[in-house]
Amino acid sequence: MTDSLTIRRPDDWHVHLRDGGMLKDVVNYTARQFGRAIIMPNLTPPVTTVEAGIAYRQRILDAVDPSLDFTPLMTCYLTDSIDADEVARGHGDGVFTACKLYPANATTNSAHGVTDIKNIYPVLEAMQRIGMPLLFHGEVTHKDVDIFDREAVFISDVLEDVVRDFPALKIVFEHITTAEAAAFVAESGPNIAATITPHHLEFNRNAIFQGGIRPHYYCLPIAKREKHRLALRKAATSGSPKFFLGTDTAPHTIEAKQSACGCAGLFNAPHALEAYAKVFDEENALDKLEGFASEFGPRFYGLPLNEGTVTLIRQETAIPETLDVMDTKIVPFHSGSSLPWTFST
Ligand code: DOR
Ligand code: ZN
Questions:
Q1: Catalytic residues
Q2: What CATH number corresponds to the domain at position 142?
Q3: What is the mean pLDDT of residues 212-237?
């Protein structure tokens, strides 16, 4: 049995760091474990200009503990009216690593998202030309589509067209939750990849309703049935370079979660790597963790692999019920329970 696992320092390819007091109180959980992170742009207002991207990146760097070596990789939020030249300039200047596409009203702060993919075809054209990745929140938002079907319908209604019309565009299908998405990515060309969260690997939709309504298991895309969780575990641990680590850590205060209309998102940053290690261990695939966590992401993005290592030790980590943020509390993933691995640098 492996009792200690040392891997190249990993990156997190999907993170919500928020802004202001929340940013200051959450950023170091991510910076402690990961060398780099793709930063989601769904602030209010969203990050839609190069200037806003530079300013947000600086606020993040100012909040990072100076003893940690962490690089935020910024993304531009696509809107119906975004200017292709602004996007391309941001990429050329090294500000925007990628663009994030939220279908309008799909999730937190997505009201300015794209209402029809055709509206941004000129931007996708430019991104394809310059090799800038498109990060897709892969759900349709029509009211007549069942919430559990939104990802699968997105593939047939949107993604297939985009892949056909922009065959060389690099696309990351973010936080996939279904067997259909895992199969689509596996069967597509090398320019199509996916991120997978620890929570979608660990629980299915029953967790949201266990003995009552459990807001801390609610996120978007919503967890699906067990067969989908099993398909995700197979994809993540397959050793395929098309699937890599993206936590989608999405902090909300305890009040915002435990409400009559609670926000979507799990705060998994504090022990993200331990959670992934648990899953890979259960699947007898600890030897596949390094590729998933530290190699496939940078290779897809065309970035160098991190130097340095981190170590996971087979030793229980107790997770507190709550953590302090701003003047209130946040409930972390695995709150009040434990994980069988401990992170160490
Ligand atoms: O659960 C989620 N929370 N899904 C998202 O897509 C957005 C995120 C957030 O920003 O809170
Ligand atoms: Zn997200």
A1: 248
A2: 3.20.20.140
A3: 98
